[in-house]
């Protein structure tokens, strides 16, 4: 293809979650014209829309908030990055969510109703029922969509970055089968997480690690990819636990008093951690996994609280999925959040000139090896604003775009689906809640072969599904590689050697 037809904008944001929208807002406030390109065709396509628990703020105790973040990270979070988050938390939430978007957070007696979640030492989380994400995301989208300086391109995928000699000049965007270069003074990646790499996830369907893979292929540094967080309480409807029907049960439910019980009806979390149900997520996820394997199931007992009154949305969802929550909600761990990603500084700047990354696809250092509940929306908001402001005001310079070929026949209809199924099986079995050090090298070899197979097709074919598969395989290889290189069991990277098989009776 040629670059005779192309588009330009001062700032190109790839992704439409809270981090991408905050970046767009930060840039447009600086006078830049902004294009937001998103694969989503509706709000539900962005991870932020699915966020349940809420958004944490510092309130009057920033130092305590900082200590909670670091403790939850297993003492691996970057203190300087945590300072950036904590010191900007109150102002960012007040400026954007309260004053600009006028989000109607839940109140108690006319005042904001702050709640508590696991590993928080005080009530500091703003929420709207158990559906905070969509109550922030929808008005944010609407606000920017009505802004003269912002253009939102939905159902549009970024396939590859346009770069030259360490500088990023834009991205190749695909929409309705057409691929067009889009040049920009700066590019902000806000593509979300990697949930599609696992069979069971709380992420939307399109979370294939696009931004991480594009940045890595362009030469940007990527860090901490082994730290994949699994949420411990994901509802499993039906006896077969169909992976397509799972849904998140907010940490706030345990914060309000819900208890975890195993298949024998026993409350077990006190045996695993002093904070019991409110222990850090990695601890609870491992405990739930162990109890499911040992007793057959784990139920979230919501009888200690008025579940339907306090969490009406979740109660309706349980009923819609055939779960009688009064008998307990069957739960299991599921992939939830990537703590690593594209390495960035305190303004979201990557190691490539004019390329930024914000939100879940970035590695700010805030989360270390394990993320504290209700800090993801806050991180996206704070770093998004800062990155957008910094990305503004840089000149657009169109250069020769990559030639993405389309000369061979279309792939079989099931090609991408079959390869993704194979990838998910490896990630689930060898890079899940627990990892066997002896298996990590095998996982890396398997994923490397899969990536090689996909690369062979990408050289002569261009389609969204094929590039998503490429991005997923690149990202999976990074997770496997970083996991194999880290010999320390810490946070979400939990190394457990399998017991040797017992000799046969023969």
TrEMBL record:
GO terms for biological process: NAD+ biosynthetic process. One of its GO terms (molecular function) is L-aspartate oxidase activity. It holds the Pfam family FAD_binding_2. Keywords: FAD, Flavoprotein, Oxidoreductase, Pyridine nucleotide biosynthesis. It is an enzyme of class 1 (oxidoreductase). Coiled coil: none annotated. This is L-aspartate oxidase. It comes from Haloarcula salinisoli. The lineage of its organism: Archaea, Methanobacteriati, Methanobacteriota, Stenosarchaea group, Halobacteria.
């Amino acid at each position: 293809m040629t670059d005779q037809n192309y588009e330009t904008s001062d700032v190109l944001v790839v992704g439409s979650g809270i981090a991408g929208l905050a970046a767009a807002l930060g840039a447009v406030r600086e006078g830049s014209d902004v294009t937001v390109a998103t694969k989503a065709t509706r709000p539900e396509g962005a991870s932020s829309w699915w966020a349940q628990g809420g958004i944490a703020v510092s309130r009057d105790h920033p130092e305590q908030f900082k200590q909670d973040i670091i403790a939850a990270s297993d003492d691996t979070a970057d203190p300087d990055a945590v300072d950036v988050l904590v010191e900007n938390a109150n102002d960012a939430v007040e400026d954007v969510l309260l004053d600009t978007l006028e989000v109607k957070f839940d109140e108690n007696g006319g005042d904001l109703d702050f709640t508590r979640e696991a590993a928080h030492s005080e009530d500091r989380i703003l929420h709207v029922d158990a559906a905070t994400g969509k109550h922030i995301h929808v008005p944010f989208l609407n606000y920017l969509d009505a802004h003269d300086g912002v253009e939102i391109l939905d159902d549009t995928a970024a396939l590859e970055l346009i770069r030259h000699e360490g500088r990023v000049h834009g991205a190749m965007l695909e929409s309705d089968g057409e691929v067009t270069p889009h040049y920009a003074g700066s590019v902000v990646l806000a593509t979300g997480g990697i949930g599609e790499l696992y069979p069971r996830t709380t992420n939307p369907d399109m979370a294939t690690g696009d931004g991480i893979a594009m940045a890595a292929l362009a030469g940007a540094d990527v860090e901490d990819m082994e730290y994949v967080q699994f949420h411990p309480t994901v509802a499993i409807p039906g006896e077969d636990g169909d992976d397509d029907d799972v849904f998140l049960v907010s940490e706030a439910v345990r914060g309000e008093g819900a208890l975890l019980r195993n298949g024998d009806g026993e409350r077990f979390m006190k045996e695993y951690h002093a904070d019991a149900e409110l222990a850090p997520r990695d601890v609870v996820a491992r405990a739930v996994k162990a109890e499911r394997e040992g007793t057959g199931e784990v139920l979230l007992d919501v009888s200690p609280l008025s579940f339907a009154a306090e969490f009406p949305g979740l109660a309706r969802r349980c009923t819609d999925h055939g779960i009688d929550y009064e008998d307990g909600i069957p739960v299991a761990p599921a992939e939830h959040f990537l703590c690593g990603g594209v390495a960035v500084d305190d303004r979201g700047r990557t190691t490539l000139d004019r390329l930024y990354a914000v939100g879940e696809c970035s590695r700010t250092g805030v989360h270390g090896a394990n993320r504290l509940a209700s800090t993801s929306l806050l991180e996206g908001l704070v770093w998004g604003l800062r990155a957008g402001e910094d990305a503004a005001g840089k000149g657009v310079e169109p250069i020769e775009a990559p030639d993405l070929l389309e000369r061979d026949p279309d792939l079989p209809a099931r090609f991408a689906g079959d390869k993704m199924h194979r990838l998910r099986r490896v990630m689930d079995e060898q890079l899940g809640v627990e990892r066997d050090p002896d298996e990590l090298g095998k996982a890396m070899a398997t994923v490397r072969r899969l990536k090689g197979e996909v690369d062979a097709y990408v050289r002569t074919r261009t389609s969204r599904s094929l590039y998503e598969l490429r991005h997923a395989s690149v990202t999976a290889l990074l997770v496997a590689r970083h996991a194999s290189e880290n010999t320390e069991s810490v946070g979400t990277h939990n190394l457990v050697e399998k017991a040797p098989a017992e000799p046969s009776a023969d």
